[in-house]
From TrEMBL:
Domain of life: Eukaryota
Protein name: Asparagine synthetase domain-containing protein
One GO BP: asparagine biosynthetic process
Keywords attached to this entry: ATP-binding, Nucleotide-binding
SUPFAM superfamilies tied to this protein: Adenine nucleotide alpha hydrolases-like
Length: 331
């Protein structure tokens, strides 16, 4: 399994190289398991010097730190140095990071805090890379969904059949914010994990759940590149790695509880939107400024599968997460 994981990831990198052989690119680098493995695969493909496969010229890395608590600080600089990348590190305050919020809300059409805390970081990285002249960026998207990176897929009652069922649901429903934001900027992002050659192999993978699912996920990927600096790093979502996870606390200091309660009642009565906390309110204010008449889709009684918190139509009767307001379960 370990050899196959490495083989398919490097084939995925090769497919990206064939599409962008003349395009210098950068990596949005967290220094986590996924981006470390992706860069190790890039190095392996380039070192192979296969005449049929051009080198993928990854020249730079971009990492965003939004707080002193950002856990990526320990890893990303080391990974960039090991791969000879020009490392652009952006230290930014939470207040400054909020400057990305209108862009993210407009492109992603959401006021969900979880999506936006992660997406503002990626949006800033993309804006910085565009300013540096890059049109192509590599990410590590897809690995968690395909290889069991999320803790809710580990241990307990998750036998092999149960794990595969969860993996298959995620594999067929996974969506990512980065491509939409990149397209808005005239850029392109590619993840080796979402290339057809790796995706098909991962979906057909028969996991060794006795080893993989009780302590940590993505064991086959970790063991495929044991030499990578982040091979056995704990999984941290973007908001933890960058430090943007403290955004909720920061916004709570800007909006009093009394102001929130008053505004929540007004929004519920006038807009029929259920807000959960100060960060949700802050995001909704931006959402309303960007979309003063709403999104235009069917809502409430006109929706086939309305979210029980914001009324916007969900994709199907089985969809439990609302991508507009972030409610779960949404129906």
């Amino acid at each position: 399994m370990t050899h196959a994981c490495r083989e398919h990831l490097e084939a995925a990198v090769a497919s990206i190289a064939l599409d962008f052989s003349q395009e210098p690119c950068a990596v949005i680098l967290s220094g986590g398991v996924d981006t470390c493995a992706a860069m190790a695969a890039v190095s392996a493909v380039n070192a192979a010097n296969n005449q049929k496969v051009p080198k993928l010229e990854v020249k730079a890395a971009m990492t965003v730190f939004a707080s002193p608590t950002a856990t990526d600080r320990k890893y990303a600089p080391v990974v960039a140095q090991r791969h000879g990348l020009e490392h652009h590190q952006t230290d930014i305050s939470l207040e400054e990071l909020l400057g990305m919020l209108p862009f993210c809300v407009r492109v992603l059409r959401t006021f969900d805090g979880m999506q936006l805390r992660n997406s503002m970081v990626v949006a800033l990285a993309l804006h910085k890379l565009k300013a540096l002249g890059y049109k192509l960026a590599i990410t590590g998207d897809g690995s968690d969904e395909l290889l069991g990176g999320y803790s809710f897929t580990w241990g307990g009652e998750n036998d092999e059949a149960g794990w595969k069922a969860k993996r298959d649901v995620m594999a067929h429903s996974m969506t990512y914010t980065c491509p939409a934001m990149a397209a808005e900027l005239g850029m392109c992002v590619r993840s080796p994990f979402l290339e057809h050659t790796f995706l098909q192999w991962a979906i057909e993978l028969e996991p060794d759940t006795s080893r993989q699912m009780h302590i940590t996920g993505k064991v086959c990927l970790r063991e495929a590149y044991p030499e990578s600096f982040g091979a056995w790093r704990r999984k941290d979502p973007i908001e933890v790695g960058s430090g943007s996870t403290e955004m909720g606390k920061y916004i709570k200091e800007q909006i009093s509880r009394e102001e929130f309660e008053s505004e929540r009642e007004r929004v519920a009565a006038e807009d029929h939107i259920q807000l959960v906390d100060e960060e949700h309110l802050y995001n909704y204010r931006v959402f309303k400024s960007v979309f003063p008449s709403g999104l235009g889709e069917k809502r409430g009684m006109k929706a086939k599968y309305p979210c029980n918190s914001c009324g916007y139509d969900l994709p199907s009767s089985t969809e439990l997460f609302c991508y507009v307001c972030g409610k779960y379960p949404a129906q």
